[in-house]
Amino acid sequence: MADPLTLGIVAGVGALTGAASSIFGGYTQAGNYDAQGNALDQQSQMQKLQAQQIATNGTNKQNSQQQEAAKVAGQQRAAIGQSNLATTTGSMADVIDASGAKAMLDKYNIAYDTEIQSKSAIDQANMSSYQANVARGNAKNSVIGGYIGAAGSVLSGIGNYTSWSRIPTAK
Question: Rounded to an integer, what distance in angstroms lies between the CA atom of residue 67 and that of residue 115?
């Protein structure tokens, strides 16, 4: 049987190797979680930019729609005026009013759609930020887990040494 010093060296090397491996694994996993968190932060920023772009596009679409509606209303008035019909009373006035009301409904629909799409992009950005924070928490837990595993390896090595050192040796 091996002497206690040799057993101690073997147990110590095994324990330290296991401990180092556990710590290295924890830091490796933490690095992966940190990278995931960074990617999710980047995704969140892109989603926030997308929300801003949606809002800008919606405003531009509303303005274009209103300009087109004003153009159509002007053409209607001109056509009615050329036909020598009254534009302030009667069915011609109703046509102009109906066109104006439809134009306002179109504007409100564009604004509503823009708001829904923009809020959706912001919600996605917030979810990505949350997931990034969770990933960073997992990174910290991985490092802690690595050290706990290392402590377990060292304690196991000590336990192995003490059990081996009690085995009687032949003299």
Answer: 21
CA 146, 148, 154, 157 torsion-angle sign: negative
How would DSSP label each residue in 105-120?
Answer: HHHHHHHHHHHHHHHH
Specify whether the CB–CB gap between 81 and 93 falls below 8 A.
Answer: no
| Tens of pLDDT, residues 103-147 | 999 999 999 999 999 999 999 999 999 999 999 999 999 999 999
Cβ–Cβ < 8 Å for 33, 142: yes
**E strands along 41-121, which residues?**
none
Q: Report d(CA 9, CA 161) in Å as an integer.
A: 9
